[in-house]
């Protein structure tokens, strides 16, 4: 009897093994076909989906069923517009996988993808509880726990809820410390530092960056990961200095950052995976970091008033971006491109290249048309740039409309102050008809009127000199020179205007050059220096002609009609202008 029972058991086991083997063979065959169609060139997504759907009639075990739902959801989400079916499959994968022990990869990947899809459908209220539950049950799986914390923090950041995002990043940093991942702890802390900088919580930023610097220097691991942490740390330091206008003080940090990116470019990607699963993260690809370093270098050059250098680095960065975007559709590349264009547009306006600036504003519009989120993040800056362009071509009513629109669209303190200051300058140029509005604006910019204007200008000159802010220095000098000229103090006026002219030529700043040459002409005429007066008049005439030609070219472009756009998304196309219709009097 025992022998018979043993034989029967052996037969049953053999039958089960054969059944499992058969199940495995049909499943692997369908999976192989699906992958073949997915990776075909071009991909045959419809056939891939058919192969995966063919799994379900076989009534597969729960593990295969959940994994197949995940695969279908992923393919439909990434390669089709059928978000409803993608959502259905991902929801099933998430539901089934929670009932299966030791099935973390499928469970948490389903949660991660499903929350992404919810956000894409503007169902943020569905994504948040899903991620919170996934975070709660993933504490024994370091990689997924950290990844889901990052994901929920990013979601809060996109909603402008930086306090919740910072709290989550703090939780992540402590968790990474407990599981022995100093690398990922640094990533969490640096991400938190970035958000604190965005919130202007500078008292919290200083100790955090100090701690991050110590962790980065002490961590011994993959060289590329270490250098990428250092780049992240230095980018935060440089932007922190630049936010404070400390252009001179930032130079050692910026030099370190540029050396760091050169080091990274010489390192080869190490295929060896980290032993700690919590270390399986990377901040940015090397190529993206390279563009980012170009970008902060452009920001520095702009603030310092080295506009030719800013243009050189912008050209390099934009060339690199064009190459990257052929192979990589990452949204961050479009963000980099827009920020670079915003900076170069300001350069063009300062150097007297309005037509080129207008065409680049149009490029920003086109990029924003492709991404509602990009437009939402940059709409205020775009209207501000259009306002600056309007001022440069003396379209003051349009400038007022653009700046007013920009004010409506921003909560950013520094951008608000910049817009209000430019709007005030529009009202000043327009004369008495905006006097009441002007005074109320000046009250909002600076409620303390107890100091004389010349003292303000001298303080500005002192600060700008200390930090090598060349454009601010040039503007302060020429304005002081003008005040002294009006007061009849020709000697002091000359002492201000001559260095203003030299600095403006070095930048080069066309408006300050025009203003300085006019002052030098009038000063020399008043002092009886006929030869010098004639030379200054000739310079002024040359600058005037250059500005006039550029003015006519800019106003003749079809893109000039952008100055009338103040509502909704950027217009798609433009009608050609008959010719310039703006006054040149105030320019010349």
UniProtKB/TrEMBL annotation:
It is found in: Nucleus, Nucleoplasm. Keywords: Cell cycle, Cell division, Chromosome partition, Mitosis, Nucleus, Repeat, TPR repeat. Coiled coil: none annotated. GO terms for cellular component: chromatin; nucleoplasm. It comes from the Eukaryota. Its main location: nucleus. InterPro entries: MAU2, TPR-like_helical_dom_sf. Pfam families: Cohesin_load. GO terms for biological process: cell division; chromosome segregation; mitotic sister chromatid cohesion. Belongs to the SCC4/mau-2 family. Heterodimerizes with MAU2/SCC2 to form the cohesin loading complex. The NIPBL-MAU2 heterodimer interacts with the SMC1A-SMC3 heterodimer and with the cohesin complex composed of SMC1A, SMC3, RAD21 and STAG1. This is MAU2 chromatid cohesion factor homolog. It comes from Equus asinus (Donkey).
């Amino acid at each position: 009897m025992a022998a018979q029972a043993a034989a029967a058991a052996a037969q049953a086991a053999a039958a089960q093994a054969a059944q499992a083997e058969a199940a495995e063979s049909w499943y692997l065959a369908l999976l192989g076909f699906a992958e073949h169609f997915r990776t075909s060139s071009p991909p045959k997504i419809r056939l891939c989906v058919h192969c995966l759907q063919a799994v379900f009639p076989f009534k597969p075990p729960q593990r295969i069923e959940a994994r197949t739902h995940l695969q279908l959801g992923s393919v439909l989400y990434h390669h089709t517009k059928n978000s409803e079916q993608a959502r259905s499959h991902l929801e099933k994968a998430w539901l089934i996988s929670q009932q299966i022990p030791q099935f973390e990869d499928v469970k948490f990947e389903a949660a991660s993808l499903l929350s992404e899809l919810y956000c894409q459908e503007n169902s943020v209220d569905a994504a948040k509880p899903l991620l919170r539950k996934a975070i709660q049950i993933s504490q024994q799986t370091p990689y997924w726990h950290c990844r889901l914390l990052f994901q929920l923090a990013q979601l809060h950041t996109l909603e402008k809820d930086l306090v919740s995002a910072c709290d989550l990043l703090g939780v992540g940093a402590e968790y990474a410390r407990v599981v022995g991942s100093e690398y990922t702890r640094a990533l969490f802390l640096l991400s938190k530092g970035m958000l604190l900088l965005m919130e202007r919580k500078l008292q919290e930023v200083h100790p955090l960056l100090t701690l991050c610097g110590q962790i980065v220097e002490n961590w011994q691991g993959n060289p590329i990961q270490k250098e990428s942490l250092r780049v992240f740390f230095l980018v935060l330091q440089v932007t922190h200095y630049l936010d404070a206008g400390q252009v001179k003080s930032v130079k050692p940090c910026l030099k370190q950052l540029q050396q760091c990116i050169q080091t990274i470019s010489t390192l080869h990607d190490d295929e060896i995976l980290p032993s700690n699963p919590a270390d399986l993260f990377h901040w940015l690809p090397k190529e993206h970091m390279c563009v980012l370093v170009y970008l902060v270098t452009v920001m520095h050059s702009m603030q310092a008033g080295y506009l030719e250098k800013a243009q050189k680095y912008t050209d390099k960065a934009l060339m690199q971006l064009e190459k990257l975007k052929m192979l990589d559709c990452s949204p961050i590349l479009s963000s980099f491109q827009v920020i670079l264009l915003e900076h170069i547009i300001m350069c063009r306006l300062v150097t007297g290249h309005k037509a080129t600036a207008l065409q680049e504003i149009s490029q920003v519009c086109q990029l924003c048309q492709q991404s509602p989120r990009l437009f939402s993040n940059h709409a205020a800056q775009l209207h501000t740039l259009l306002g600056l362009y309007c001022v440069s071509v003396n379209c003051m009513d349009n400038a007022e409309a653009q700046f007013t629109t920009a004010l409506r669209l921003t909560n950013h303190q520094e951008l608000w102050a910049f817009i209000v200051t430019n709007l005030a300058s529009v009202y000043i140029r327009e004369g008495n008809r905006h006097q009441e509005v002007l005074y109320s604006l000046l009250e909002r910019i600076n409620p303390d009127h107890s100091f004389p204007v010349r003292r303000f200008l001298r303080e500005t000159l002192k600060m700008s000199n200390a930090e090598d802010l060349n454009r601010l220095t040039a503007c302060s000098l020429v304005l002081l020179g003008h005040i002294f000229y009006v007061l009849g103090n020709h000697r002091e006026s000359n002492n201000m205007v001559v260095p203003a002219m030299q600095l403006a030529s070095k930048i080069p700043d066309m408006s300050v050059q025009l203003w300085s040459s006019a002052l030098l002409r009038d000063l020399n005429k008043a002092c009886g220096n006929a030869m010098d007066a004639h030379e200054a008049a000739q310079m002024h005439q040359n600058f005037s002609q250059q500005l006039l030609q550029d003015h006519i070219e800019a106003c003749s472009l079809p893109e000039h009609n952008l100055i009338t756009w103040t509502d909704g998304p950027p217009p798609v196309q433009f009608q050609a202008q008959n010719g310039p219709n703006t006054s040149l009097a105030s320019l010349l």
